[in-house]
Give the backbone structure.
Amino acid sequence: MTQVHLHLLITHLPVFGSILGALVLGYGLWRKSTSTKMAAYFLFILSSVGAGIAYLTGEGAEEAVEKLPGVIENIIKTHEEFAMFALISLLLLGVSALVALFLSIKNSPLANTAASFTLFISLLSFVLVARTGYLGGQIRHTEITSGAIQNNATQEQGEKDDD
């Protein structure tokens, strides 16, 4: 398995893990279920690790596709830059989940505050990682970028007509 394969496989984990964990945590807060909240924390920790792996394999994936026909370097750079924000938010989510898990185990009065903060971070992380995934999909999925490519082709044709 190459870095490209690993990158493509693992990138879905932070996307689905962050939103699924948010739903589980929201349910756990609503039902006041410590075990349900703990399950969400484990999902967040797993998502955080997945985000780290996805980020680390991104460079190898970039090297594999950057020379392929139809791949636009600016789309890769935009995806790469946005991935850093997603990574930071997911690492923060993982740390927040670890703290909330520890506070839950210790039956701390701060456990619900930590859970609410973690829920907020998970929703923010989902937005960032979903946007990162969308940008990454534009690299090779022409059905997503067809409008942009069509607009560029129209502009280029217009420039040729002016010559």
The first helix runs from residue 3 to 10. Residues 149-157 have pLDDT under 50 and may be disordered. The chain has one domain: 3-162. The helical segments are 3-10, 12-31, 34-65, 73-105, 111-140, 142-162.
